[in-house]
Amino acid sequence: MIQDYVMQTGVNILLAWSVYIILLSGSLSFANGGFMAIGAYVSAVLTVKFGVPLILAAVLAGGVAFLFGIGVAFPALRTRGLYLILVTVGIAASVRAMLESIDYVGGIQGFSGMSGASPWHVVALVVIVGAALWLLSRSRLQRILDAVREDELVAASMGINVLYLKLACFGAGAFIAAVAGSFYAHYILFVRPDEFGILASVYIVLYVVLGGMNNLWGALVGATIMTLAPELMRGLAQWRPTVFGLLIVVLLLVRPNGLLPFRIPTTGRAKRRAVKP
Q1: Residues of the chain whose pLDDT is less than 50?
Q2: pLDDT of the residue at 277
């Protein structure tokens, strides 16, 4: 039972970070449930039908999602705001519809036969991704992303390739979501397309909104709370979407920037404060 909690919490933290990475460039994606589905199904096919080792299959599935994410992001990023959100919702819905129509992966009946994942795979990945994001937050690249996030036109006038950064963030987010989906599929042993619908993408975004969108710890806290909270209200399982909806509304009223609204200071900011008299 504890292993299940660790696995689910770790997967959700990774999914939250996959959205957070895209947010770093100022874009919001509701397509990460679809990227997770790509990782789950591609890795499942590789391990079950071709005998590829799990770790290699997860990395390859992440690579497929990375390329797919960049491919769909290139036209999608021509839109802004609500229109971009609608495009990413459409991407998630299209991935689910595609999986339901492919008999090779079981169609609407689902796909089974996977095995080999353990909570330690996810824990290791959480440590690796968390460390990478922490190092990013202390780097010059973080300041460049901050500039793009705050004002794209000003960033472009400073010589920053805004489209390249946004595509890179979109692809990185898709990669992490896909690898998380790979380990998830090989732990629960059976997947169906309806597990990766639009609602799954909405929950992933809510993890970040709840915890705070300005730093990597907010996504971690939000994902942990929203994963473990249902265990404290098992009798209200059918009301879970309603309870979470009310929780988000209350949070937006009380703490509109999330539970952890602060920003992690970059190295440059920290140095400037250190020399300030």
Answers
A1: 267-268, 270-277
A2: 47
* Phi, psi (degrees; rounded to nearest 5) at 197: -75, -170
Task: Output the pLDDT for position 183.
Answer: 97
Tell me the CB-side half-sphere exposure of residue 275, using CA atoms within 13 A: 5
Which amino acid is it at 67?
A: L
Q: What secondary structure does DSSP assign to 104-160, as a single string?
A: GGTGGG-EE------HHHHHHHHHHHHHHHHHHHTSHHHHHHHHHHH-HHHHHHTT-
The Cα 223–Cα 209 span in angstroms is 10
Rounded distance between C-alpha atoms, residue 69 and residue 53, angstroms = 24
- pLDDT score of 275: 45
Q: First-to-last CA distance in the chain?
A: 54
- pLDDT value, residue 274: 45
Q: Do 143 and 271 meet the contact criterion of CB atoms below 8 Å apart? A: no
How much is the pTM?
0.91
Token pair of 47 as six digits: 């391990």
Q: SS3 letters for 238-249?
A: HHHHHHHHHHHH
State the Cα–Cα distance between residues 255 and 19, nearest whole angstrom.
Answer: 20
